[in-house]
């Protein structure tokens, strides 16, 4: 009697086992339909912060975060200005600004919405509050925005120099152009121009606000006001202008076979 040790083939009743391996049943089933270019474009644009409306254009308001996103970017700075103007005390103004930013995080938790924007706002307000509290100067609450603008300007100018303009990377996917626009010199020039528009918006903020910052507390109200007006509203305007200037030229319709 032979004892099997588990490594020997079992008795198959004389039949020779088929050594060929057949593909699993799942592999024989048709695969799910691959996502379309439109779906990929929409997903990429959304991750980049851009959203399309039903007409295929950029939804400017939604791209700015909607009304809630705009409020999240405006209210902490506004609360800081109001409280400091009333109390002339830096500490309660900073606490109030941080509290305003924290409220939006709680609201997003209740709404079960992504916390990325709200948390970024809390971190930004926290750093701004730390800077102002460290120096004891109320105007330093706004200084972080200067460095943020400079960083964005540098990145966008670099993208133009490298012929990967940011406007093309964003708008190209919204328009289902993918990266094909880089092969067309005219489209490349258009997206460079669109990127320069956004750079101009960011540079304009610095041109207007930096002199107000150096005025100290005397320029605080004007600095805070221009920060609000040149924040989301100016960003939406610049984005809209860049979108219009980079619009592809209409393609001539092909003659039908009956006209040929």
TrEMBL record:
Domain of life of the source: Bacteria
Organism listed in the record: Arthrobacter bambusae
Stored InterPro entries: UCP010219
Region called Disordered, residue ranges: 1-36
Transmembrane stretches, start-end: 69-87, 93-110, 115-132, 152-174, 195-216, 228-246
Protein name: DUF3159 domain-containing protein
Keywords, sorted A to Z: Membrane, Transmembrane, Transmembrane helix
